[in-house]
Amino acid sequence: MRKERGFTLIELAIVLVIIGIIIGMVLKGQDLIQNARIKSFVNKSRHWETTMWIYFDRKGKFAGDDDRNGIIADEGTSTSTVRQDLIAANFANPPYEGTSGSEINTITQGSNTFYVFFGNDGGSPVKNIMVICVSADCTTTFQSEHVAFAEGLDRSIDGVADGAQGQVICTSTSVTASGGTAGSWEAVYSSQPAAAACTPGTTTAIVYYFDAKR
Predict the structure, then answer these.
(1) DSSP secondary structure string for all residues of 189-205
(2) CA distance 186 to 164
(3) Backbone phi, then psi, for 87, in 5-degree steps?
(4) Residues 95/51, Cβ–Cβ less than 8 Å
(5) Which helix (H) or strand (E) holds 115?
(6) What is the pLDDT of residues 47-77, one digit of tens each?
(7) CA 129 to CA 214: how far, in whole Å?
(8) Is the residue at 194 inside a domain?
(9) CB-neighbour burial class of residue 186 (10 A; exposed 0-12, middle 13-18, buried 19+)
């Protein structure tokens, strides 16, 4: 009978090492892609902030601050909203998505969509904020992949990913928000939102005190 030769232990070991290297490269590639998405999210979030400051520089007030008291969206019945003001100001060039007439205040990264709002925290004293949620009504809780983006923004501004303190916080406090095509792009809290660590299944919004420290 003809003898059949199988793989030696050394050959099997080499194959396993090669498979391990390939798996490691795939995982590393996924990490690089995710990190790139987080950096893009941070840059687009800061672009929204920059847009608001450009508007302030040109108009002497924030978008959505009709009574010019320095507080965004506190008039109750305003003649214009953050959305209307920013879109009307061609110089501001907000990084919204969509086409003319159907602008949406969203940031899309892969399969993740975030909604961006400006308003105030309802605190004492009242402070201006930028709010980022994963749904147009800010009621949907963050999942693990969303928390990674929140921590990336927190780290870029506060130097550490700690949603419980600093200018960037995570919260589950309910917010009055209106988003989407016909939304006002405004978010207002009835009282200062409670800060907590960014947590999947609990966090409903990222709150950035872009105008002053919390």
Answers:
(1) -SSPPPPB---TTT--E
(2) 23
(3) -70, -35
(4) yes
(5) strand 112-120
(6) 999 999 999 999 999 999 988 999 999 876 6
(7) 9
(8) yes
(9) buried
Domain holding 47, by residue range, is 9-208
Axis crossing angle, helix 9-59 with helix 144-158, rounded to the nearest 10: 60
State residue 123 phi and psi, 5-degree precision.
-85, -170
Q: pTM for the complete prediction?
A: 0.85
94-136 confidence digits (pLDDT tens): 888 888 888 999 999 989 999 999 999 999 999 999 999 999 9
Name residues whose C-beta falls within 8 Å of residue 129's C-beta, 6 or more positions apart in sequence.
118, 119, 120, 121, 187, 189, 207, 208, 209, 210, 211
CB 165 within 8 A of CB 154: no
Domain count, the chain: 1
25 occurs within a structural domain = yes
Return left, alpha or beta for 22; rule: phi > 0 is left, psi -120 to 50 is alpha, else beta.
alpha
Q: How far is CA 56 from the centre of its chain?
A: 22
Cis peptide preceding 125, ω within 30 of 0: yes
Length of the chain: 214
In a domain, 214, yes or no: no
State the DSSP H helix or E strand holding residue 108, giving kind and residue range, or none if neither.
strand 106-109
Q: Which of 129, 44, 51, 115 is nearest to 89 (CA)?
A: 51
- C-alpha torsion sign, points 171, 172, 176, 180: positive
In this structure, is residue 101 part of a structural domain? Answer: yes
